[in-house]
Design goal:
The chain is of the alpha+beta class. Helices cover 41% and strands 14% of the residues. A six-stranded mixed sheet has the order 2-1-6-3-4-5. Strands 8-7-12-9 form a four-stranded mixed sheet. It has a three-stranded antiparallel sheet with strand order 13-14-15. The chain is globular.
Length: 600
């Protein structure tokens, strides 16, 4: 008997029609769920790159994974697939919390939304049925109040995905928020929801069980993985992601002052070990459902009151890139970004871009901002969310904002998406990671920092085939993690063998390491084919190739030769031609066709 991951609900907001469907098991076996199945469904939707991502026909797909609800540790992540209004390409984002599991308890493995409602609305899924309801009373609310209001109606055990004012105003990097501080953050999924007049999606559990093909083996794997995670994810349990603040600044990969430094001036004021953990950490750790790690750290402002769950990427973006190395101001900025429903990484990048241009005289001081000016940064966040004044320009994202401000060369982005907290000039595996990632400058496409930081595969500055192969291995595992769906923080516990045994126990499929790798490769190649990506879009920002950064007396840059050498090695090993297109032989071997993706 195979597992029962198949329930697909389609909602057309324009007509109000709801259709109940079944995902084909051969598709689930070939692509799993989450990112893989979501991309496959998107490829068959008839919607194409080049059409406005905010048009009614643009699909928004929420996908759980076959492991969700099984109790397998770290299996509580969900995926949203959509055409990114920021990057104008097929993209996706993931979120933790309880959404993936409660989706399945509510009777939906996948929810696909199209159309545009005539008034503010939200979708409720319960007992395997979906209903569209009026959300006029919620429109204009921040994410925190809106989620609280919906839980008062549908119960504390419901799972809510909600947008804030930024999504309603279709800011191109608006997030979809869940459980207060968790987000489908990257790419602008919140703007897609806003374009549909869709304030929220609510999943109400009607049961608490998900069938596994082999219950005995599933329980054995749950026990084994819980033990393995006790050591394999210990650093995340002890320090969350915030310990990376000290590692990044102390060893020189922490992007600062909008990509001009790799260690923030005054960074010890936001040190996790010396300051945040001692004076701001509340002692409260929170966790996603079915996760024994509990990596989230709650910090409280001593100056302003209030608290947030803070993590590394938000700290890098709102403190490092902006120069706001004040814990109380950082906490306040993080709270506003979350409540407005904005991607903190892109927000920090556009604020940093404006400060960079202001301090170089390209933007007037009255319109711009100086590095470290927290009050003005906070004001700008509200302006971005409302798309007012200079905020309307910044709401376009770094690439388009830099063009509007007359300095396109200043923007640091790949394929329209701004990068995260790992400077590739000192972590060379990240140069390849950022280049080939289909979302854009996406640190989680291959998590190459996990190879670079500990000095694996030749060391941080290595760019040879050993490094490329190591990055590709993580790229493939990440494709499985995003489709199973599992948290990537379990990468030191969930190797290929553990992935095969966990998936076979729950689904009843007969994966081997080789066939599961083919699933991963199929997902990667399908995504590239859908976007039509070539070598031209795999280019890195000119500033990374021409502006060195200094750290401890040494100068670091990514050379054009290093970028091209890594890329050509990657193309050869991945089965692409020199223009970066999957070859006919690769497509045939992986059973991915142009007709299948709707592009033939």
């Amino acid at each position: 008997m195979e597992g029962t991951f198949s329930r697909l609900i389609r909602v057309d907001l324009s007509s109000g029609a709801v259709r109940y469907d079944e995902a084909r098991q051969e598709d689930v076996k070939a692509y799993l769920g989450g990112r893989g199945l979501g991309l496959l469904l998107a490829s068959r939707s008839g919607f194409r790159r080049g059409v406005d991502p905010l048009s009614p026909d643009s699909p928004l797909i929420f996908a759980s994974g076959p492991l969700a609800g099984s109790g397998m540790p770290l299996s509580s992540r969900a995926v949203a697939v959509f055409m990114s209004p920021l990057a104008n390409r097929w993209s996706y984002s993931t979120v933790g919390g309880s959404l993936a599991v409660i989706m399945r308890y509510a009777g939906a493995d996948v929810l696909m939304v199209t159309g545009r409602a005539s008034r503010p609305s939200y979708i409720v899924v319960e007992g395997g049925r979906a209903e569209v309801r009026d959300a006029s009373g919620l429109w204009g609310m921040g994410t925190l109040d809106a989620e609280r209001a919906l839980k008062e109606v549908h119960g504390d055990d419901s799972a809510v995905a909600v947008i804030g004012p930024a999504g309603e105003n279709m800011v191109r990097f608006a997030s979809i928020n869940h459980e207060t501080w968790r987000q489908f953050g990257r790419g602008g999924g919140g703007a897609v929801m806003g374009s549909k007049n869709l304030k929220a999606v609510v999943f109400v559990p009607s049961g608490r069980a998900v069938e596994a093909a082999d219950p005995e083996m599933t329980w054995a794997m749950i026990s084994e993985m819980t033990r393995r995670l006790a050591t394999g994810a210990k650093s995340y349990r002890d320090n969350g992601t915030l310990g990376t603040i000290d590692a990044g600044n102390g060893t020189g990969f922490f992007p600062s002052l909008y990509w001009t430094r790799v260690s923030a001036p005054g960074w010890r004021r936001i040190s996790w070990f010396d300051v945040l953990s001692k004076y701001y950490y509340t002692g409260k750790r929170t966790t996603c459902l079915h996760c024994p790690v509990a990596c989230h750290k709650t910090v409280a402002s001593r100056r302003y009151g209030g608290y947030v769950e803070l993590e590394y990427e938000t700290t890098m973006a709102l403190a490092g890139l902006t120069g706001v190395v004040d814990p109380d101001e950082l906490i306040q900025l993080a709270h506003v970004v979350d409540d407005m429903g904005l991607d903190s990484i892109t927000t920090g990048n556009v604020l940093g871009l404006l400060a960079y241009l202001t301090e170089r005289g390209a933007v007037s001081p009255g319109e711009g901002v100086r590095f470290g000016d927290a009050a003005r940064m906070r004001e700008l966040i509200f302006m971005i969310a409302k798309r007012e004044g200079i905020g309307k320009v910044l709401s376009l994202g770094a690439k388009e904002a830099a063009k509007e401000l007359g300095h396109p060369e200043a923007a640091v982005e790949v394929k329209g998406l701004e990068p995260a907290g790992y400077d590739p000039r000192t972590l060379k595996g990240m140069a390849l990671n950022y280049a080939v990632a289909e979302r854009g400058a996406d640190h989680l496409w291959a998590s190459a920092y996990a190879v670079d930081i500990p000095g694996l595969a030749g060391g941080r500055q290595a760019t040879g085939e050993e490094k490329v192969r190591a990055v590709m291995d993580l790229e493939e595992r990440n494709a499985v993690y995003d489709s199973a769906v599992l948290c990537k923080f379990g990468r030191n516990a969930y190797g290929w063998d553990e992935l095969v045994r966990s998936l076979n126990a729950v689904t009843g499929f007969d994966y081997t390491k080789e066939t599961l790798r083919q699933v991963a490769q199929r997902i990667i190649v399908l995504h590239r084919l859908m976007n039509g990506t070539t070598v031209e879009e795999d280019r890195l920002p000119p500033r990374w190739l021409s502006e060195p950064v200094e750290f401890e007396g040494k100068s670091y840059v990514v050379t054009e030769a290093e970028w091209r050498s890594m890329l050509m090695t990657y193309y050869r090993l991945r089965g692409y031609d020199e223009e970066g297109r999957p070859t006919k032989e690769t497509l045939e071997a992986l059973r991915v066709s142009l007709v299948q993706t709707g592009q033939g």
